[in-house]
Amino acid sequence: MFYNMISLKTLKLSDNLDTSNVKNMSYVFAYCSEIKELNTFLFKTKNVEDMSGMFLGCSSLKYLNISHFVTDKVLDMSRMFEGCSLPSSIDISNFITINVKNMTGMFANCDSLNRLDLSHFIIENVENMAGIFFHCENLKYLDVSRFDTSKVTDMKKMFAYLEHIRDLDVSNFKTQKVTNMASSFKECLYPPELNLNNFKTENLKNMSHMFENCNYLYYAEFGGFKTQKVTDMSYKFKGLRYIDYIDVSSFDTKEVVNMSSMFEDCNIRILSTSNFNTSKVMDMSNMFRDDYDLASLDVSNFNIKKAV
To answer: pTM to 2 decimals?
Structure first.
C-alpha cells in the first residue's frame, strides 16, 4: 500500500481505513526509509495471514507500537522487521506465532536492537528460520531457549554476525529435519560455549562456514554430529582461536565435495582426520592453512584424485 515511498516522512491514518478483513499486509510499509514514527493502532490484523516484509527497510524508524497486533492467523513473518532502525528493544510480547511457518530474516539487520525476548514464541510449525537474527550486530540479549525447532529445515545464517552475544542457549533445539546450517553461527564472536549435544544432523547437507570466526568460542562438542549426507564442509571451523582440539573422528565424509579452508587459521593442537573419506572432494584449498600449532597430522588415507 505504501511500498517504496522513500520520501514519506509523516503518515496520518484514520478510522476510515478499515483493515479488519485484510489477509495480506506484506510489504505494506516496506522501504518507507524516511519515516520516523508509525502509529498502527488503527490497524486491525485479526484476519491477516501474511506480514512478510511489513516494515522492511524502514531505516529511520524510531517509534513503532504494534503491541495491539493480533497475529494468531499469521503464516508468514519473513523479513517483517528486516533493516529497521528499531528501538533498542521492541514489545512483541502479544505476538501469537503458533501458525507461523516462515520466519526467514524476520529481524535481520536490525542494527539498533540490543535486547530481544522471544521466550513466549511458540514456533512449532516454523519451517524456515534462515537469517532470522542475521547481522543484529548490537544484540546483547537473546532468549531462544524455548524454541521448538522440530519442523525447521533451514537454519542458514540464523545467528550469523551476532557480534555481542555472550550467552546463546540452543541446548533444546531439535534439528533432525534441518538440511542447511551454512553460516549458522558465523562471526558469533563472544559466546564462550555452545551446547550442541542435542543437535541431530542426520539430514544435514550444508555445514559450510558454520562456526567460522567464532573467535572466543572455547568449548563446543562436535563429536556427535552425523554427517553422512553433508556435501559442503568448507570454512566450517575457520578461525577458531581458543579451541585446541576438534573431535571430527566420527565424521562421515563420503559425500563431501568441498573441504576448502575447513580448518584454516585454527589454534588446534590435536586433529584426527585419518578416517576422512575424500574420494568425492573436489576442493581442498587452504584446508589446514595457518594452523601453526598443529604438530602432527595424518592424511595418508586421503584420496585426492578429484581435487583440483
So the answer is: 0.93
